[in-house]
Amino acid sequence: MINITIDGIKTSVPEGSTILEAAADVGIDIPTLCYHPDQTVKANCRVCVCEVDDNPLLQAACSQPVYEGMNIKTRSPKVIEARKTILELILSHHPQDCLTCIRNKSCELQDLADEYLIRDLPFEVKTRGFEKDESTPSLFRDHDKCILCRRCIDACNIVQSVGALEVENRGCESMVVPTLGGSLKDSPCVMCGQCVHACPVGAIGEVENIDKLLAAIADPDKVVVTQMAPAVRVALGEEIGMHTGELDMEVLVAGLRKVGFDHVLHTNFTADLTIMEEGSELLQRLTEGGTLPMFTSCSPGWVVFCETFYPDLMDHLSTCKSPQQMFGALVKTYWAEKMDIPADKIVSVSIMPCIAKKFEAQRPEMNASGYRDVDIVLTTREVGKLLRMTGIDFDQLAPDKFDSWMGSYTGAGVIFGATGGVMEAALRTVYEIVTKRELEDLNFEFARGFDGIKHAEIDLDGTVVKVAIAHTLAHARTLMDQVRAGESPYHFIEVMACPGGCIGGGGQPYTKANVKRLERIKAIYAEEEKMAIRKSHDNPEVKKLYEEFLQEPLGHKSHELLHTHYNARPKKAL
Questions:
Q1: How many H helices and E strands in the chain?
Q2: What is the CB-side half-sphere exposure of residue 500 using CA atoms within 13 A?
């Protein structure tokens, strides 16, 4: 332990601690911009500078280690003046359009400018004059707002191992740019959106579709139907001042009806359906000599990653569409028939934790019904804005039920929102189909937690199935390299592109720390534990769907509507 004094407080901290960590231990907040708790230390913005002993040079708190007897001042006049000047310099190269920025009121730079009472800039405001990069259906880049913190590069290159962003030039000429070309479309970007969470300002964000939704709601000839992914509810409350997981599901249904949705259904229904199709596909591959290991295909960022970096391994991907796309295909066929609504009048809207879902919805393969499966994709953040815009007061709403036919779901569908959830849900069903016995314990504990790669062996009456789970694309790359080298021992592998799975998706409420993602995972499992039905094959509406429409898993109708194919894509052609 090291003895130090910080703002007059004597304390002891572990050897190797930084000033920033030591300050946090005693409840002192030091401002940061380039610092990220789950990334490497960069120390390039200098907003966190502090006075140390009699050193004439201020030290960056995020990188400076403490030493015995160190005396630190974090809020002295000299420190405050230096931080204010640093912020003024950053703002002098930053567009002054806060009111119309996607990060207005959720911008770290804006918060610090207010905290340090910056009212006038002593320097000439001069931006670089770059145009927005709006080349993808999921993400845009506003390069003029980049403050060179490089957090997006860490997220893309280290957490995701994608390498779609890099630094060009040096010194004051430095710029964060897409690799391999001038736009995101020309880079190997998979549109996972983790760069959006990493960015402290509005230099990168999701393409918003709220106006498209409002136009559809206002059209009297359209029937607006929404589906909601399992990770949405647990995080949506964060957008409207609630704690993680606090927003009641049925109250949320009532709120969505107030917004103007004609019918409210749930993606969990097709999560259960995905287990029926994907589980059957796995068993078919195991018994008939199909390509193994089989990879899940629920995460669209992961699918693009596979298409881009591992085109030689495309046969390992499940042919199942994601739950979002399965839902879209069925809502314009099966559900439309049940409700006696013409398919061309239906506007299929999905509420997703994922930015890559916007790209997935526009894939040319996703229209097997003759209509686009999903017309509009909104992120959790967009729905939060929509709820605030329409003034929904959840305290005044009575709970409401999901619509029938595609609104029923089980606990297995709920846990799709967390890393390992798809695997756990699949094993519950596959085990009972193969063994013809009910599971005594439905909880596959090995599948839970935040470890990057998890694995286990499951005994199905003498047939041992080896499974693995990965979240983040860097961990997926590790497993893919094993497969490519012919060294993979696994039969079935779940991959989620984002940290923690869908609960950490690029479209979830802004967070730069995995601590918040762990809270969401806890809320997912707490919800699942309360479910009366916890196995996908016990979902009564899924059973009825097969009886009345699909006939059987992997049948002709299922292949037509619920399965697809993927294509190798050059790194410069997203």
A1: 20, 17
A2: 27
* Span 51-67, pLDDT tens digits: 999 899 999 999 999 99
DSSP 181: S
User: Each residue of 304-330: pLDDT tens digit?
Assistant: 999 999 999 999 999 999 999 999 999
Give the contacts of 441 (CB within 8 A, at least 6 positions apart). Answer: none
Query: Taking CA 551 as the corner, what is the angle to CA 324 and CA 422, rounded to the nearest 5 degrees?
Result: 35
Q: For strands 165-168 and 9-13, give the pairing.
A: unpaired
C-beta separation of 193 from 505 below 8 A:
yes
Residue recorded with tokens 């918060």: 111
Q: What percentage of the chain has pLDDT greater than the value 90?
A: 94
Asked if the bond preceding 570 is cis, omega within 30° of 0, the reply is no
CATH classification code of 128-206? 3.30.70.20
Cβ neighbors of 66 (< 8 A, separation 6 or more) are: 2, 4, 13, 17, 18, 19, 22, 72
Residue 99's contacts (CB-CB under 8 Å, 6 or more residues apart) are none
Amino acid at 76: S
Q: Tokens 């005994």 label which residue?
A: 459
Q: Does domain 211-562 have CATH number 3.40.950.10?
A: yes
Residue 571 pLDDT level (bands cut at 50, 70, 90): low
Instruction: Identify any residues that bridge with 225 across adjacent strands, giving them in sequence order.
Output: 263, 348
Catalytic residue numbers read 278, 281, 298, 318, 357, 360, 365, 502
> In this predicted structure, what is the pLDDT of residue 286?
94
The DSSP line for 134-173 is --SSSEEE-GGG-----HHHHIIIIIS----EEEESSGGG
Fold match flag (2-91 vs 211-562): no
Strands (E), 316-372: 346-352
What's the CATH number for 2-91?
Answer: 3.10.20.740
Ordered by start, the domain boundaries in the chain are: 2-91, 128-206, 211-562
The model carries a pTM of: 0.94
Closest CA to 327 of 306, 296, 357, 348: 348
